[in-house]
Amino acid sequence: MKIALLGKGKTGSKVLENKIHQIFAFDSKNPPTFERLETFDVIISFLPGDAFKSYIPLLVETKLPVVIGSTGLEWPANLDQTLKDRKLSWIYATNFSLGVAVVKQMLNKLSHAQNFFPNHKTSIHEIHHTHKKDAPSGTALSMEEWMHEKCSITSERTADVIGFHELTFDTGYEKIKLSHEALDRKLFADGAIWAAEYLFKNKNPGLNSFQEIIERTL
Length: 218
Ligand SMILES: NC(=O)c1ccc[n+]([C@@H]2O[C@H](COP(=O)([O-])OP(=O)(O)OC[C@H]3O[C@@H](n4cnc5c(N)ncnc54)[C@H](OP(=O)(O)O)[C@@H]3O)[C@@H](O)[C@H]2O)c1
Hints:
Elements: E1 2-6, H1 12-15, E2 22-26, H2 34-37, E3 42-45, H3 49-62, E4 66-68, H4 79-85, E5 89-92, H5 98-112, E6 121-128, H6 138-147, E7 152-157, E8 163-170, E9 175-182, H7 186-201, E10 206-209, H8 210-217
NADP nicotinamide-adenine-dinucleotide phosphate binds at residues 7-12, 26-29, 31, 46-49, 51, 69-72, 93-96, 188.
C-alpha cells in the first residue's frame, strides 16, 4: 500500500517507522499537491488541525481514502454529506489508541448509570506536553461526548507527557475513576495504519469515527 503521510512531527515520524508499507511524508517545506498525492492509495494526516483543515478541498479532489489524526479543528458542517455524495471514505479519531476504543465502551456503560445518581458530577483532567496546540484535548472532548453529558474539563501542559486522561464520576458519596495513559506515540501510528489498511480494503462512504469502525469489527 502506498501511503501519503501529511506531517512528520512527533506522531507522523512514528508512522514513518512502519516497514510494511511504502510511505512518503509531506510537511511545510514539502507541501502536498494534487499531482503528487494522486499516485498514492491512501492519505494519513498528523498535521495540526488548522493545517489539515486548509487541505480539505485538495484531499476531496484526490478522491483518495483519508485517515485523520489531526485534532483541534471544527469540521465543515457539510463534509460528511460531501464525502457520501462523492462515495469517499474517510476515518477520523481524536485518539487512535485501541485502548481508548475500550475506554469508550466502559464510558458507555457508566453513562447508562447516570440516572442512579441524580447529584453526580463528572470531570475530566487531561495532561499533555507543552507543545500541544489545542486545549482541551480532542480525546477529552470525545470522552465528554461518550458520557452524553456536560463534564468539567481541566487541562495541564507539562514537559513531554504524551497523553494522560482521567475521568472522575463523583456521586457525592463515592468516586469512580477511569484513566488512560499513552506511553509511546507508536500506538497512535499503529491505529492510524490499521485504519488505512481498513480503508484500502473496505468502502464506507462518509466521515467515519475510528471507534465506531473498531466496535463493528470487534
Ligand atoms: N488522533 C491521535 O491519535 C493523535 C495522537 C497524537 C497527536 N495527534 C494530533 O496530531 C497532530 C500533530 O501532532 P504532533 O504532535 O505530531 O505535531 P508536530 O510534532 O508539531 O508535527 C506537525 C507536522 O505537521 C507539519 N505541518 C504543519 N503545518 C503544515 C502545513 N501547513 N503543511 C504541511 N505540513 C505542515 C509539520 O511540518 P513542519 O515542521 O515543516 O512545519 C510537522 O511535520 C495534532 O493535531 C495532535 O493533537 C493525534
